[in-house]
Amino acid sequence: xxxxxxxxxxxxxxxxxxxxxxxxxxxxxxxxxxxxxxxxxxxxxxxxxxxxxxxxxxxxxxxxxxxxxxxxxxxxxxxxxxxxxxxxxxxxxxxxxxxxxxxxxxxxxxxxxxxxxxxxxxxxxxxxxxxxxxxxxxxxxxxxxxxxxxxxxxxxxxxxxxxxxxxxxxxxxxxxxxxxxxxxxxxxxxxxxxxxxxxxxxxxxxxxxxxxxxxxxxxxxxxxxxxxxxxxxxxxxxxxxxxxxxxxxx
Length: 250
Fold this sequence. Notes:
Residues 2-22 form the Putative zinc-ribbon domain. With 250 residues, the protein is mainly α. It has helices at residues 25-96, 98-110, 114-123, 136-156, 166-184, 196-216, 221-224, 232-249.
């Protein structure tokens, strides 16, 4: 074929004339034809796939869904079994080390190391052991006290904890103080948790907690004496009022 402008020889693959630089109109048309034929080919292929696919799509979808259901069932079953096995192994370990844990808990309780007792009980998951159930109340009370201490620290150092509002913190403190006072009361259904030894520790924890509330949250002692009868919300209000009064004094 010839260039329409200068007459030089061209091939179908030449986009431009090598002599004058003019576009090869034959190559342009050839590419258009090839694109058209290619599009026709792919469209025909899609139509064939769609027609054949319709015949098996329902079976395929049903098979896939059924397979997914079975797979999910086995995954859930495996997860549940794994949890039960892990739980059983942990309980067996606790059973074997019961005396060790008893001695450690007794020492922490005797030393009145309430934060240490709370941490030891939680970290070692001793709540899973029926043999250590008698320590549950003093451990829980110690844990609540630890939260009260932590949230109070955040209230008094609000510039370091800007992501928590004072209102939220005092709400949490009120909730945990209420939980403590509920635990202070003797529970006839859990007599082993209120033995003479545990009751003495519980009383000391109560005294320490009330001193902490008076010193750091500025709550008057006469108001603290009423906490046993108050709701968590009212305890929060007492704390907020006490903090405001203390701040206004300065």
